[in-house]
Design brief:
Helix 1 (18-26) crosses helix 3. The chain has 6 helices and 9 strands. 34% of the residues lie in helices and 33% in strands.
Length: 181
């Protein structure tokens, strides 16, 4: 089953997507903008990762397709089926078209699937203090900043604040109802 937004389609990852994911992981600028860290990843390591995660029912990773082109990945990870929550993240390829709403529609499609199909109650994530694009994206999609983890992420030889963000099921439905107004 594909997950349809208004502009994007979220689909299961395929082996043919691995070069795009490896390129994103190995991109220093993208690495600078996300929480966490990674070492350089080889083609074999990427395929080994894919083979490990493909059948995981607590961590879903979706290819973002726009006009039949792979433009990024959207995730629901650390799914807690009892407490009905999951961590959400999104990464867009550097060459993904800008200013056409791919990010917003990808977050919307992921929220719609999480809240309307999986019946989750809460989605959460984290944003680096200097990632203005992510701050604007999640605010536009109805997410709220829940605090500030001071100097919790070390990147580029400095410590940076991490902002936990989240949206609840009720907030999603309210946002969805008012979205076009």
């Amino acid at each position: 089953m594909n997950i349809c937004g208004n502009k994007v389609i979220l689909r299961a990852l395929e082996p043919s997507d691995m070069p795009y994911l490896r390129e994103m992981i190995n991109d220093p600028e993208m690495e600078r903008m996300v929480i966490g860290w990674s070492f350089p990843v080889s083609e074999k390591q990427q395929m080994d990762w894919y083979n490990r995660v493909i059948s995981d029912n607590k961590n879903f990773r979706f290819a973002i397709m726009y006009e039949d082109m792979f433009v990024g990945v959207s995730t629901l990870t650390q799914i807690d089926w009892k407490n009905r929550s999951a961590d959400h993240g999104i990464k867009l390829c550097n060459d993904a078209p800008k200013g056409v709403g791919i990010g917003t529609d990808s977050v919307y499609a992921t929220m719609k699937y999480a809240f309307e199909e999986l019946q989750l109650n809460r989605l959460y994530g984290s944003i680096l203090e200097y990632n203005i694009a992510s701050q604007k994206l999640y605010a536009k999609c109805g997410w709220k900043v829940e605090g500030n983890y001071r100097q919790s992420v070390f990147k580029n030889n400095a410590y940076h604040d991490e902002w936990p963000v989240a949206i609840l099921r009720d907030e999603y439905f309210e946002w969805k109802e008012n979205r076009g107004k």
